[in-house]
């Protein structure tokens, strides 16, 4: 690129340079063309390669092939960024036709599952940038291509796949259209579709499915998870014959406040050995917590986690902080992995478990939220312009809160009361800090697994004492006892 020394310029800049270059121009084109062999007619075709970066996502390599002799064309997308520290699992509920327009970025290590069909698409050799509807139509095209041959050679397989195709056409809103040539999408936005669930499981963390509006989209869910040793082997991060990390041996001795424990283990990113450090910390006017820190010297992976070091609280706690100036942003905040966070002024809602446990400042956790959201993408033709503008406006509003350009409220709701925001006036009341203690309902206890906890009689049969009482109540009197009662 003549005007930019970047290896991965933004896609908008690439488009402008492509249109500005004249056919006879001597300037270097942003698109690289390579002669390639067509695997259908074995003539020479053209492969075009473009290095670019997608805003709010990451660097990608876009490749397109076309053969002028037979008309065969193909395209794929590959991530040029680093492999994420953890795997990613996206789940989207597709309930109406607008959900079919959700963008999908699928890397070559991503596994796609549709539970309603018992259908699993394993990782492929090439990535893909498409929509939910485009993904379904590609699956239908692949399954439908060999149906005439299956009908003759394997009728059972033909019938099973045909039943699957009927269900997939219902998911597209065309239940009566079983021919691919006539499967044009219905333009009626109110036409019903068969609801289904779409899951993207990518150990590399480089796949994505679009949310609508914000991350509080009720039909969209995202979580990260540590990779297994086998997944690291499949991604090429570690050799298959590497020794597994040793597990830490625990002792029954109490951990002192000044003692730092070291647990040898394995890096969840690269699979090499590392140490996890743990220390007890006593937060004034709160409770004891355990801080764990992990740092890998091989790949640079870093992580920290906070756990409560005390008993489970019988009640939940909601903490409301009114942020007015930079001093409020410097308050310490402990967000446990069971706490949810909300900022009503910008309609930000983080469900419990998002970001895990964190011990930082208010400014630090807002920056973490901004970094997580700014990596998400709303790209492609089917991404509505109003959705893009709404998402960009949301990020701008979040940035303005980080700069304290206006007052806002941070609400931390923890059903286990293991979260904390520093009071600047402790032990006196803080005018900007409100704490509300409430009783958990049955659903919250069930989600936390508290309804099944047994603290008495767990050495044997938990119902043994109850059974003994029932037997004593219904046990008939002995003959000696009966004679004594008659004599009396």
From TrEMBL:
<feature type="domain" description="Zinc finger ZPR1-type">
    <location>
        <begin position="265"/>
        <end position="423"/>
    </location>
</feature>
<feature type="compositionally biased region" description="Basic and acidic residues">
    <location>
        <begin position="463"/>
        <end position="488"/>
    </location>
</feature>
<dbReference type="Pfam" id="PF03367">
    <property type="entry name" value="Zn_ribbon_ZPR1"/>
</dbReference>
<keyword id="KW-0539">Nucleus</keyword>
<keyword id="KW-0479">Metal-binding</keyword>
<protein>
    <submittedName>
        <fullName>Zf-ZPR1-domain-containing protein</fullName>
    </submittedName>
</protein>
<dbReference type="GO" id="GO:0005634">
    <property type="term" value="C:nucleus"/>
</dbReference>
<dbReference type="InterPro" id="IPR056180">
    <property type="entry name" value="ZPR1_jr_dom"/>
</dbReference>
<dbReference type="Pfam" id="PF22794">
    <property type="entry name" value="jr-ZPR1"/>
</dbReference>
<dbReference type="InterPro" id="IPR004457">
    <property type="entry name" value="Znf_ZPR1"/>
</dbReference>
<comment type="similarity">
    <text>Belongs to the ZPR1 family.</text>
</comment>
<keyword id="KW-0862">Zinc</keyword>
<dbReference type="InterPro" id="IPR042451">
    <property type="entry name" value="ZPR1_A/B_dom"/>
</dbReference>
<comment type="function">
    <text>Acts as a protein folding chaperone for elongation factor 1-alpha.</text>
</comment>
<feature type="domain" description="Zinc finger ZPR1-type">
    <location>
        <begin position="36"/>
        <end position="211"/>
    </location>
</feature>
<dbReference type="InterPro" id="IPR040141">
    <property type="entry name" value="ZPR1"/>
</dbReference>
<dbReference type="InterPro" id="IPR042452">
    <property type="entry name" value="ZPR1_Znf1/2"/>
</dbReference>
<feature type="region of interest" description="Disordered">
    <location>
        <begin position="452"/>
        <end position="488"/>
    </location>
</feature>
<keyword id="KW-0863">Zinc-finger</keyword>
<keyword id="KW-0677">Repeat</keyword>
<feature type="region of interest" description="Disordered">
    <location>
        <begin position="176"/>
        <end position="195"/>
    </location>
</feature>
<dbReference type="GO" id="GO:0008270">
    <property type="term" value="F:zinc ion binding"/>
</dbReference>
């Amino acid at each position: 690129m003549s005007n930019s020394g970047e290896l991965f310029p933004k896609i908008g800049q690439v488009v402008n340079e492509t249109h500005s270059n004249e056919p006879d121009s001597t300037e270097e084109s942003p698109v690289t063309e390579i002669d390639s062999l067509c695997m259908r007619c074995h003539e020479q075709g053209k492969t075009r390669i473009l290095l670019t970066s997608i805003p709010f996502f990451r660097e990608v390599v876009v490749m397109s092939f076309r053969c002028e002799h037979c008309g065969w064309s193909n395209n794929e997308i590959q991530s040029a960024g680093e492999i994420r520290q953890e795997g990613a699992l996206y789940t989207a509920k597709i309930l109406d036709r607008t959900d079919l327009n959700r963008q999908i970025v699928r890397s070559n290590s991503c596994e796609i599952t549709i539970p309603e069909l018992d259908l699993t698409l394993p990782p492929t050799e090439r990535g893909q940038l498409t929509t939910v509807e485009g993904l379904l139509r590609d699956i239908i095209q692949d399954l439908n291509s060999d149906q005439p041959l299956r009908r003759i050679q394997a009728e059972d397989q033909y019938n099973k796949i045909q039943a699957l195709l009927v269900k997939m056409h219902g998911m597209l809103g065309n239940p009566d259209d079983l021919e691919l040539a006539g499967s044009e999408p219905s333009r009626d936005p109110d036409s019903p579709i068969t609801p289904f669930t779409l899951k993207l499981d990518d150990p590399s963390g480089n796949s994505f499915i679009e949310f609508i509006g914000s991350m509080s989209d009720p039909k969209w869910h995202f979580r990260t998870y540590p990779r297994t040793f086998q997944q690291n082997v499949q991604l090429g991060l570690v050799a298959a014959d590497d020794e597994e990390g040793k597990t830490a041996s625990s002792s029954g001795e109490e951990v002192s406040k000044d003692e730092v424990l070291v647990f040898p283990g394995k890096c969840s990113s690269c699979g090499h050995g590392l140490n996890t450090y743990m220390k007890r910390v006593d937060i004034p006017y709160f409770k004891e917590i355990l801080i764990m820190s992990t740092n890998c010297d091989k790949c640079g992976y870093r992580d920290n986690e906070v756990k409560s070091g005390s008993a489970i609280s019988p009640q939940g706690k909601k903490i409301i902080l009114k942020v007015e100036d930079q001093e409020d942003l410097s308050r310490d905040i402990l967000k446990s992995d069971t706490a949810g966070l909300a900022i009503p002024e910008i309609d930000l809602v983080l469900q419990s478990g998002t970001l895990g446990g964190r011990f930082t400042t208010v400014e630090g956790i807002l920056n973490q939220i901004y970094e997580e959201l700014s990596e998400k993408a709303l790209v492609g033709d089917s991404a509505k312009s109003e959705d893009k503008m709404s998402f960009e406006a949301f990020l701008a509003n979040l940035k303005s809160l980080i700069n304290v350009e206006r007052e806002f409220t941070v609400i931390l709701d923890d059903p286990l009361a293991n979260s904390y925001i520093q009071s600047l006036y402790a032990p006196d009341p803080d005018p900007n800090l409100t704490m509300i203690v409430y009783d958990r309902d049955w659903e919250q206890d069930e989600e936390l697994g508290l309804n099944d906890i047994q603290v008495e009689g767990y050495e044997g049969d938990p119902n043994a004492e109850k059974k003994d009482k029932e037997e004593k109540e219904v046990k008939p009197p002995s003959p000696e006892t009966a004679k004594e009662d008659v004599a009396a």
